[in-house]
Design a protein that fits this description.
Blueprint: H1 3-17, H2 19-33, H3 40-65, H4 73-88, E1 92-94, E2 97-99, H5 106-130, H6 133-153, H7 155-158, E3 164-165, E4 170-171, E5 174-175, E6 181-183, E7 186-188, H8 190-214, H9 216-226, H10 228-233, H11 238-264, E8 266-267, H12 274-287, H13 292-311, H14 329-347
Antiparallel strand pairs: 1-2, 3-8, 4-5, 6-7
């Protein structure tokens, strides 16, 4: 037996004995099996949470790891969502609007939409490389107003106020639409099919971000966050790293936007506004700044609250179904995660995943 095999066997045995390994295995099996048991409502809620988690990971790289405040995250989600619609959609008429579309294969369109969001971030990156703190937050806030104006008025691309329908994703001969595919006597429609695509996207996004945070780039980003001048003295190209992480964060937002569009099956300009950007900031503050796990936990908390309150509005005090005159589930959820943000800032500075003052990623 070789020395490599001899050294590998004890490490594998030790890992198998660790409780965290079995928690991961059990969680993975559970997530893979959920589409066979949950109905469409819960699957869509989970898909929203996974899309939000991808976007929150990107924002956490920018704000949590680098200390760059961004208020324009929703703009890049809109670029990804509408970019996919234009690239994959066909030209035609919908709701009285003449829509433009390139009709590209949907898989290629999804990749190009993510790159388009990164290119939009690249155009803004010179500003991001030179501004910091509240100044960058105010500058990115302008992106929301510009984006909303374009989305509402460029009707040939966006469909105007009513939005435009989203072409279904098609990969390797499988179309992620409502056409039923029977798997183990369970009919799979768009939500069930998208579930596994979203899981794969979230897993790859999380692993990539984790590698960035644990490697040399992550140490440089943390150094910039903790002390910009000292990082520059040590040879870290501060402006270049700030610009680069802004582009990377924009690409994460673009991927989240594509997934959200596929889940919604329709893009509406009003959704990609200031409230959405604030929700993403709430996600990373609640979950934990500078960590992948914090972004995922915070995204699940913020994105799952509205559907949960809507589903159980009849049995919850002070919460009423939309349109019945009581406190709407959407409003109640904003009160709750607003209170959670205050509680996290006061009592859990590291968020739910890391209740410590140090928000950097552990080695």
């Amino acid at each position: 037996m070789s020395e490599t095999t001899t050294a590998f066997a004890p490490a594998l045995t030790a890992r198998l004995r660790h409780p965290r390994t079995w928690i991961w295995v059990a969680g993975s099996v559970l997530l893979l099996g959920l589409p066979f048991y949950l109905d469409r409502f819960w699957l869509q809620a989970g898909l929203f949470a996974m899309a939000a988690a991808i976007g929150a990971i990107g924002l956490n790289l920018l704000t949590g790891a680098t200390g760059q405040l961004s208020m324009g995250h929703a703009f890049f989600l809109a670029v990804g969502a509408y970019g996919y619609c234009v690239l994959a959609g066909e030209s035609g008429t919908e709701n009285g609007h003449s829509l433009s579309g390139l009709g590209l294969p949907s898989g290629l369109a999804a990749v190009l939409a993510v790159l388009l969001a990164g290119a939009a971030g690249g155009l803004f990156s010179p500003i991001a490389g030179r501004l910091r703190g509240a100044y960058l937050g105010i500058a990115t806030l302008a992106l929301i107003f510009i984006g909303q104006h374009v989305l509402f008025n460029a009707s040939s691309l966006t469909g105007g106020y009513n939005g435009r329908s989203v072409p279904p994703l098609s990969l390797f001969g499988l179309t992620f639409d409502d056409t039923e595919v029977v798997v183990a006597a369970v009919p799979f429609q768009s939500s069930e099919k998208l579930w596994y695509a979203a899981l794969a996207a979230l897993l790859l996004s999380g692993l990539f971000a984790r590698g960035v945070l644990r490697g040399r780039p992550g140490r440089a980003l943390n150094a910039i966050r903790d002390h910009r001048i000292a990082a520059g003295v040590m040879g870290v190209p501060v402006a270049r790293y700030r610009a680069g992480v802004f582009v990377l964060s924009s690409m994460y937002a673009g991927l989240a936007g594509v997934l959200l569009a596929l889940v919604f099956q329709r893009t509406v300009p009003e959704y990609f506004g200031m409230v959405l950007s604030l929700e993403y900031l709430a996600m990373i503050v609640i979950g934990g700044l500078g960590t992948v796990a914090g972004a995922v936990v915070g995204a699940a908390f913020v994105s799952l609250l509205p559907p949960l309150l809507t589903h159980y509005s009849d049995s919850l005090p002070l919460v009423a179904a939309p349109g019945t005159g009581g406190l709407a589930p959407g409003e109640a959820s904003r009160y709750l995660y607003g209170a959670a943000v205050v509680a996290a800032v006061l009592f859990l500075p590291g968020g739910l995943t890391r209740p410590t003052k140090n928000s950097g990623e552990k080695k």
